[in-house]
Design a protein that fits this description.
With 131 residues, this protein is mainly alpha-helical. 81% of the residues lie in helices and 0% in strands. It is built from 5 helices and no strands. Helix 2 packs antiparallel against helix 4.
Length: 131
């Protein structure tokens, strides 16, 4: 009798309360990945110089102005490339998490049935091996 009660509470939890927890956990994963890769911050600072490396051009000579322009442009290009690569990896991690979460959400309702069939299939294999 106690086994049936435990089984009933498990099934009740599995198809009601667990869904709320699953969506909360998926949201936590997505929040973590977005903050780990700092995707919003990288998008806001996409064209900023890399590590704020820049120089100021001199007032006198033209070569110092063009040298500063070249260095500042180069640092912005480097910053753009590194930030773009990081954003791409972050977006890939987000999409992978969403895809795996979707697969998990599809499999979740079927897990008790799968466990049932695996358990009795294993018992059948044991009985077949013994006989």
């Amino acid at each position: 009798m106690a086994f049936i009660q435990v089984l009933w509470f498990y099934i009740l939890w599995h198809y009601t309360k667990a869904w709320q927890d699953i969506f909360r956990i998926i949201g936590n994963y997505l929040w973590f990945i977005g903050n780990f890769f700092s995707i919003n911050l990288l998008l806001k600072t996409l064209l900023s110089p890399w590590r704020r490396l820049s120089i100021k051009g001199g007032k006198g000579a033209e070569d110092s102005f063009f040298g500063a322009l070249l260095i500042n442009t180069l640092m912005r290009v480097v910053g753009f490339l590194i930030r773009s690569i990081t954003i791409i990896f972050g977006a890939a991690a987000l999409f992978a998490t969403i895809a795996l979460s979707g697969a998990f959400l599809v499999a979740w309702p079927l897990l008790p049935i799968i466990v049932f069939f695996l358990f009795f299939g294993g018992l059948g294999q044991i009985v077949k091996a013994v006989l």
